[in-house]
Design brief:
Layout lengths: L4 E3 L2 E3 L4 H4 L3 E8 L11 E2 L5 E2 L5 E3 L7 E7 L5 E8 L7 E5 L1 H6 L7 E11 L6 E2 L10
Parallel strand pairs: 3-9, 6-8
Antiparallel strand pairs: 1-2, 3-10, 4-5, 6-9, 7-8, 7-10, 10-11
GO biological process, one term: peptidoglycan metabolic process
Protein name: Probable endolytic peptidoglycan transglycosylase RlpA
GO molecular function: lytic endotransglycosylase activity
């Protein structure tokens, strides 16, 4: 999904796949919970996928959906790979929302916010999946 969309008075333009596969950014992450387990209530993402508490997923405003990212907590160095399959966060200057399990894995669930680095690993699924090719450095490797 790379179509523009509007939320809460803002219009967002997802980046093209060729730009997204090399995307790296740093900023504030938060976590959100769109599901519950014992109550059997399940949330749904922008892609219409069901959400359960054990999923390692994330929401981003401008990355193409779906994509895989590596999120690293800059305070403790812990990282997690997440599937970006939803839009958000739409609060302040936050760059990514993680599922509760992903936030716990990198050590900020109790705090609520963390400074992170987000690096795109691949964009798309199945036969549409694209990964970043390694950039050559002066032809040495």
């Amino acid at each position: 999904m790379t179509k523009s969309y509007s939320v809460r008075g803002g219009t967002y333009h997802p980046m093209p796949v060729d730009e997204a596969i090399y995307h790296v950014e740093s900023g504030t992450a938060s976590w959100y919970d769109e599901s519950s387990f014992f109550g059997l209530k399940r949330g749904q993402t922008s892609l219409g996928e069901k959400v359960m508490p054990w999923h390692l997923i994330a929401a981003h405003k401008t990355l193409p959906l779906p994509c895989m990212v590596q999120v690293t907590n800059l305070q403790n160095g812990k990282s997690v790979k997440c599937r970006v399959n939803d839009r958000g966060p739409f609060i302040g200057d936050r760059i990514i929302d993680l599922s509760p399990r992903a936030a716990k894995k990198i050590g900020f669930r109790d705090e609520g916010l963390a400074e992170v680095e987000v690096k795109v690993l691949s964009v798309g699924d199945g036969s549409y999946k694209r990964t970043a090719k390694k950039k050559w450095f002066f032809g040495l490797f």
